[in-house]
C-alpha cells in the first residue's frame, strides 16, 4: 500500500499494538494506538515510565515493527518493507534527536552533521551543512570535536544533523533531558522553528511539562494506551493532566 487513507496526515498510526515476550510472560508495550498527525505539526508524547512512549516513537519511525496495526509516513506504509528498505526510507524522510546526543566523538561538529548525507550516498552540499550549523548557532565551532563542546552545544549539533537532509518527520526522544534550562529552551526553539518555518512534523517524547507546552498538542499514554490529548497546552495544564492519568486510564478501559 502506498497511499494513506488520510492523505492529509504526515504520520499515521492505525491500531498499533506491540507485544514483547511469549504467551504467559507477554508485555503489551502498545495497545491499539491510533494517531494521525498533520504536516508541520509539533506533538509532544507524555506518560509515566513504562507507558509506551519510546515504543510508540520506535514503531512510528520504523525502528521497531508493530505486532498488529499499521504505520504510514508521508503516504507510504511501512508494512512489508525489508530492513534495507526501511533503512533507506528513514535516511530519506526521517530525522532523529536523542537525549544522549549520539555524536561520533572522533568527528568534528561539521563532520557529524554531514554524516547522514554520506550514509545516504548523497552528494554532500557543503553550503547545506554550513547553513544547518548556522541555524543552530554552532557555525563558529564547526571544527571542534564533541568533547570540546558543552552539552547544549552538542545537542544543537545533533539537531543540525537531524535537519540537514530536511526530513519530513523529525523524532525527538527526551531531547532536553540532559540540558540546563537555557540550553533546553534553545533546543525547543529550534524544534518549534522547524515546524513553523519549514513545515516539518515534530514528534517529541518528553517528561517535562514546560517542554511539552512548546508543542501544538500533547498526547498522553498510560499502560500502552492513548488515554488523552490536549491542544494548545500550557505547562500547568499538562502537569495537571499528568497528575490525573490514572483516572483517564480507568475511563479508557
From TrEMBL:
Keyword annotations: ATP-binding, Nucleotide-binding, Transport
Top-rank taxon, per record: Bacteria
GO cellular component, as recorded: membrane protein complex; plasma membrane
Gene Ontology molecular function terms on file: ATP binding; ATP hydrolysis activity; transmembrane transporter activity
SUPFAM superfamilies listed in its UniProt record: P-loop containing nucleoside triphosphate hydrolases
InterPro entries reported in the protein's UniProt record: AAA+_ATPase, ABC_transporter-like_ATP-bd, ABC_transporter-like_CS, ABC_transpr_LolD-like, MacB-like_ATP-bd, P-loop_NTPase
Domain annotation ABC transporter: ranges: 11-248
Xref: CDD domains: ABC_MJ0796_LolCDE_FtsE
Official protein name in the record: ABC transporter ATP-binding protein
Originating species: Modestobacter versicolor
